[in-house]
Design a protein that fits this description.
Elements (H helix, E strand, L loop, with lengths): L9 H28 L9 H21 L2 E7 L2 E7 L10 E7 L8 E9 L2 E5 L6 E10 L2 E11 L6
Antiparallel strand pairs: 1-2, 2-5, 3-4, 3-6, 4-5, 6-7
Length: about 160
């Protein structure tokens, strides 16, 4: 009986190379899937300026969140409502509310709405909101001073649209 002394052959090289590229392709497909199915970030005009302003904006958002003032958005057909209340649940005293609707990627469908006041802490407007994912930035002011500035991501399916 004779032992094989061939060692590393061309078949071994083919298998090693195929296994290497199979791993590379599998990792790329996995990363592409996660990239397309997860949060896609925001579109900004100048990324450098946005990165420089981030910490200041984050601190201001934390202070507003600590105040307990919060808003609730509802969309039914073309009717858009926004209610804002203080931490005790009472309507917050604000003069105006602006909603900036933005798509997570791209800006060709973005729009801004200034809502009309219908009662203390209650605002509404009419506008068609296309289906899919949106980021809504709500800015509430009293005497020109920002009382609440929040952004929420949602899918129109959450509102039954």
């Amino acid at each position: 009986m004779r032992a094989s002394t061939q060692g590393f052959t061309g078949w071994h090289m083919l298998l090693a190379t195929s296994a290497f590229f199979a791993v590379v392709i599998a990792v790329n497909v996995t990363m592409a899937f996660y990239a397309s199915s997860s949060w896609s970030g925001l579109v900004v005009e100048n990324t450098y300026v946005a990165s420089q302003e981030f910490n200041g904006k984050a601190a201001a958002m934390k202070a507003m969140a600590a105040s307990g003032v919060a808003g609730a958005l509802t969309i039914k057909g073309r009717e858009i409502r926004y209610e804002i209340h203080d931490k005790g649940g009472a309507p917050a005293i604000v003069d105006d509310v602006t909603l900036n609707f933005r798509r997570p990627v791209g800006d060709h469908e973005d729009f801004r709405l200034t809502l009309r006041k219908t009662g203390e802490g209650r605002f509404e407007a009419e506008h068609e909101v296309a289906g899919g994912d949106w980021i809504v930035e709500a800015v509430s002011r009293r005497n020109g001073v920002v009382v609440m500035h929040e952004a929420k991501r949602f899918d129109t399916a959450e509102f039954g649209q």
